[in-house]
Design brief:
Blueprint lengths: L5 E4 L4 E2 L1 E4 L4 H13 L3 E5 L5 H12 L3 E5 L2 E5 L10 E4 L4 H14 L3 E4 L10 H9 L3 E4 L8 E4 L11 E4 L4 H10 L9 E6 L5 H13 L5 E3 L3 E4 L10 E3 L4 H14 L8 E4 L12 H8 L2 E4 L3 E5 L9 E3 L7 H7 L7 E4 L11 H11 L3 E4 L3 E5 L7 E3 L5 H7 L11 E4 L11 H8 E2 L7 E5 L6 H12 L2 E4 H14 L8 H9 L3 E4 L2 E4 L2 E2 L7 H11 L2 H12 L7 E5 L2 H5 L5 E6 L2 H14 L6 H16 L13 E4 L5 H14 L12
Parallel strand pairs: 3-16, 4-15, 7-8, 11-12, 19-20, 23-24, 26-31, 26-32, 27-31, 32-33
Antiparallel strand pairs: 1-24, 2-25, 4-6, 5-6, 8-10, 9-10, 12-14, 13-14, 16-18, 17-18, 20-22, 21-22, 28-29, 29-30
Helix pairs in contact: 1-2, 1-3, 1-6, 3-5, 4-5, 5-6, 9-11, 13-21, 14-16, 15-17, 19-20
Amino acid sequence: MYATEFLDLPPLSSAAGTVHLPGSKSISNRVLLLAALSDGPTDVHDLLDSDDTRVMLAALRELGCEIEATGTCTRIHGLGARAPRSPARLFLGNAGTAMRPLTAALALLGGEFELSGVPRMHERPIGDLVDALRQLGAQIDYLGQDGYPPLRLRTPARPAAPGAPIRVRGDVSSQFLTALLLATPLLSQAQPVTLEVVGELISKPYVEITLRLLERFGVRVAREGWARFTVPAGSRYTSPGAIHVEADASSASYFIALGALAATPASGGALRIEGVGADSIQGDIRFIEAAAQMGAQIESGPNHLQVQRGAWPLRPIDLDCNHIPDAAMTLAVMALFAEGTSTLRNIASWRVKETDRIAAMTAELRKLGASVDEGPDFIRIRPPQTWRAARIHTYDDHRVAMCFSLAAFNPARLPVRIEDPKCVGKTFPDYFETLFSVAHTPAASIPVICIDGPTASGKGTLAAAVAARLGYHLLDSGALYRLCGLAARRAGLDLAQQADAVAGLARTLPVRFEADRVFLDDEDVSDAIRTEGAGMDASQVSAHPAVRAALVDLQQRFRRLPGLVADGRDMGTVIFPDAALKVFLTASAAQRAERRHKQLISKGLSATLDSLRADLEARDERDMSRSVAPLKPAEDALLLDNSSLSIEESVQTVLAWWQARQPFDPSGSRAA
């Protein structure tokens, strides 16, 4: 997961391949709570690993549930007849699928509990649920503003089923009804409990998920349309033993849209989405109908979808989105690529989600150049006449971040900056990695920052820090010859006589760099390649032109989405002459010798400053006089003398140079 301040998406052009979706958040947290309330253990397979599920798992552990995780299976030992551990304070982040159902369940089970979350959770209404629970005798106090978390639940006599129906509003959030449906079987009732919905029930498909899962755990709810729901007398939860979590249909919407935008015969054909099909129990699967209406070509199998571009430009849409409230956000971004005005209606629930999504989508769509009108329960979008590069503010809302990533496929080939990309951790922590695995763009569109310089200038440390700040890949070119020598030695090759075999091995070295660590086929070989013997092997393999050519090719293949920071001696002059930013880092020989001396002393090795300085000066002379790729700044490189700079000061200098070359102004529009 990208934990950077922002993530810059270069202009993307096509998509092809296969996507494996994570489990559904809505199903995952419902299943976790039901398993915790049941008798006996439940094996939950393919549980979503995200912020929201981690919050729920932490809360269940705090309440006394024993939880074991092995591979893709999570075993929940249900509380059954046991009371939850009390008193307890539960922090539930911004997870509505944890806050609302846990409030209802714990209020009816009895105990002393405090439930809180992040500031945005304390702005999300819960008053209608609390009012309904109070009809059941629950004792709930607001610890802040009335009608909103945080809450205190107190222990009265255990509530009993009333004779009259329990009334709950359905036009604010379907999670209120879901919470009551999950909680009322906990009552020791001799008579059924009826829930009566006031107003039109929104997000009906999410209630349908709840009803289907209740059946899996032994409770069959009778209903009269979407207005009355009756939980039978004597209901109790029983574990199904094992249950599989379907992949997330809401997450599928981004890749369905991606296929509609960018999967063409020229790009490799349809985009395949695995883990969910048209027979899904999730309401958001009906997003495929809306996407098809806009022009996507979609085929469905038992557990997969295949999507490719059909109509182009996309057709505009005018749609009541009550049945796909979360996935409808993706339609708003697809509307940018339509030939005409699109209107999404009946989306009032957007106002009370992780953020006010109608306001958020309006603001961010306008940054890209769209004309947008918003109302209490609708949004109307006219695509840009002129696209603009934009910084997308994500409001700590995972769906804002994910759906706006699709704007990187804009026809103007402008980059898009996603602020706070880690917010996708709420439901899809690996979203951007998954996107990059199937999105394609010409290599020249992938940004590269080159940091060249002499030995001991600190270029490796600087490159690693810059890459970490930007979320870019890292290439430590100086380690590659050592890696090649190490791999060849392990393969039993004669480094002097088997040049072609060594070159063949070099072309496919399974290497990756993470900060100051180097991995060869997932083995950390950082120390192994820094020995004197590894240095001698590197000198041998580097003498072969075929090996050098193979490693040039390998280095160029490090240019992958979203970008690359490469350090070495000839990155800007030979390997990436078209790099967007080239930095030549240097320091005086005396300063570099002092740094190297401190490193050696810290490792318990002895050396004199004079000998180190003489060695560095001699090496500089050799590197600058090489016939092949001599050490020198690229003509368009920026010189950075870090003799008197800290590492952080050097990092900030390079980042400032990089920011100055980006087409974003502070307000999010394209720079003039």
